[in-house]
Amino acid sequence: MVFATHEDEALEQRWLRRILEQASDGVLLLQPYARTNLTNVLIENHLPFVAIGDRNDQQVTFPSIGSTIWQGGYSATEYLIGLGHRRIGIITGPLALRTSRARLAGYREAMEAASIPIDPLLIAEGNYMLGDGYQQTCTMLDLPEPPTAIFAGNDAQAAGVYRALYARDIKIPTMMSVIGFDDVMYSPQMSPPLTTVRQPLVEMGRMAAALLLRLIEGETLDMNHIELSTSLVIRESCAPLAQS
């Protein structure tokens, strides 16, 4: 059974009741970190579960599958720096989430390693939606010295970046380079195809399901948290900084 709560507390409570009343064998949770009571209730009821996505609290004891988010943020920023960009904007997700902070930390580390000053005006917090990608890009474009490249927190935000740039007739990649994060199925079909950091989402789901089946069978897991590697997928949305 698949159930989406859309971060609605009433829906989450309804889902919990259904899970407990129907005597489910196990649960896969997708980033259940904003509502920690979900995991607490599952633990109290001895219901096996595995979380997919990085965790906010490194001390929690439930099993989870994540990816090397920090490395992805570093690799994306390093790639743009290698193309000659120095004014690199970043649109994050909610900074209350560790995954969002990890992307930003990777960005900061790459900029500092290249001795490039970090402009706070080029760091914008969003919510991983297309709309905030659009709005935050418009804000950056209105700066006296706008960025020459934008690193979006996910591919949906990157689609919003594209929309804002097209609205102002700013061509990608000759006038602005764009990088996303996740490598979802529509990223190669964007125009131009989006350069992005690939999260191994299918592999994460497959491994989480395999671990859950082991828990249901009563096995003890060797480790609590597993991180799979991210990788930079280079397509056509980035170019060397224009000399003009």
Report on the structure:
The chain has helices spanning 9-21, 37-44, 69-82, 98-113, 130-141, 155-167, 201-216, and strands at residues 27-30, 49-52, 64-67, 88-92, 123-125, 149-152, 177-182, 195-198, 225-228, 231-233. It is an alpha/beta fold and 244 residues long. The strands form two sheets. The chain has a six-stranded mixed sheet with strand order 5-4-6-7-8-10, sandwiched between helices. Helix 3 (69-82) runs parallel beside helix 4. The radius of gyration is 20 Å and the shape is elongated.
State which percent range the strand residues make up: 15-25%
Per DSSP, the total helix count is 7
Average pLDDT over all residues? 91
Number of strands: 10
Strand order of the largest sheet: 5-4-6-7-8-10
Q: How would you describe the shape?
A: elongated
Ends apart, CA distance between termini: 56 Å
Short structural summary:
By secondary structure, the chain is α/β, with parallel strands linked by helices. It contains seven helices and ten strands. The model has no long low-confidence stretch (mean pLDDT 91).
